[in-house]
Design a protein that fits this description.
The protein has about 290 residues and is α+β, with helices and mostly antiparallel strands. The chain has three domains: about 5-55, 2-Layer Sandwich (Uridine Diphospho-n-acetylenolpyruvylglucosamine Reductase, domain 2), CATH 3.30.43.10; about 60-175, 2-Layer Sandwich (Uridine Diphospho-n-acetylenolpyruvylglucosamine Reductase, domain 3), CATH 3.30.465; about 180-285, Enolase-like, domain 1. The protein has helices spanning about 15-25, 35-40, 80-85, 85-90, 90-95, 105-110, 110-120, 125-130, 225-235, 240-255, 265-285, and strands spanning about 5-10, 30, 50-55, 65, 70-75, 135-140, 145-150, 165-175, 180-185, 195-205, 210-215, 225. Strand 6 (about 135-140) and strand 7 form a beta hairpin. Helix 10 packs antiparallel against helix 11 (about 265-285).
Length: about 290
């Protein structure tokens, strides 16, 4: 199929992009890497009247660390983030997750902001941002606002963005001493969407778990934090018993959704196994 007819404009700054979107109204869509938008346009699942190209906005392509926070601009491509020494030091979870995303050609064009705004429940980045307790930074003619990643994804392809807002970046707290981060997904083939995936961030005081954020993707209608399982881990060392208990809680806590290839029971079983494997990785770090 072919896309609908559309107009094309190119923005040079965030302010210009936001002003254009406000002026053009609901028929306009932002275009960054295009790895999600263009295929949906080709299938006529999306039919914007105007594309506002933000791929040349330098403000959206910056990675920096300031005041205890790692900032990643929404226009940063996966390949840029993977190559960043700042990201590797401040949020190693992202460096672990990005190689799992699709294929190299997609990672060379796809952007962090595009993934978050698309809000595919099978995508890696939304769950990673939830595990990292990130803030999603949004811009509109009315100014800037921030939304915790844990509250940003209410459902499939849904976000907390208001009409006309532009996602301009994410702010991630720098990891405190004792914080460890791990990522794992299970898929049928390399590059496929995951059957299930997890992004875990645990903080240890010596060998005792002080806090835990266990984020899952490709298991339900949105990325999820397994709060009950995380609470069960806190206050004790990781052990075979605590890992088994937390994994069992995850299997009960999540409302699993089937996908085209994997039923609910299989998702539940595989996610329990994935949880065990991920927590065992933390145990090996002690």
């Amino acid at each position: 199929m072919k896309t609908n007819l559309f107009q094309y404009v190119r923005a040079e700054t965030i302010a210009e992009a936001v002003a254009l979107r406000h002026h053009l109204g609901d028929g306009a869509s932002f275009l960054a890497g295009g790895q999600s938008l263009v295929p949906t346009m080709a299938l006529r699942m999306a039919a914007p009247e105007v594309l506002i190209d933000i791929s040349a906005v330098g403000e959206l392509q910056q990675i920096s660390v300031q005041d205890g926070t790692l900032h990643i601009g929404a226009g940063c491509r996966y390949a840029d983030v993977l190559a960043s020494s700042l990201v590797a030091g401040a949020a190693p979870l992202l460096a672990r997750a990005i190689p799992f995303i699709a294929h190299e050609a997609i990672r060379n064009r796809g952007t962090i902001g595009g993934s978050l705004a698309h809000a595919d429940p099978a995508s890696e980045m939304p769950a990673c941002m939830m595990a990292l307790d990130a803030q999603i930074v949004l811009r509109s003619p009315g100014g800037e606002r921030r939304v915790p990643a844990a509250a940003f994804f209410p459902g499939t392809y849904l976000t907390a963005m208001d009409e006309g807002e532009l996602l301009v970046g994410v702010d991630i707290p720098l990891a405190a001493p004792g914080v460890k981060q791990r990522f794992l997904e299970i898929s049928r083939r390399a590059g496929d969407y995951a059957i299930t995936g997890g992004a875990f961030v645990l903080e240890f005081d010596r060998n005792v778990v002080r806090s835990a954020r266990l984020a899952f993707f490709s298991v339900s209608d949105r990325p999820l934090l397994a709060k009950a399982a995380a609470a069960a881990l806190c206050g004790q060392p990781l052990s075979a018993t605590s890992i088994e208990e937390a994994s069992a809680i995850v299997a009960k806590e999540i409302e699993f959704f089937a996908d085209l290839y994997t039923g609910v029971d299989a998702k539940q079983h595989i996610t329990r196994t994935l949880t065990q494997r991920l927590l065992e990785q933390f145990k090996e770090l002690e």
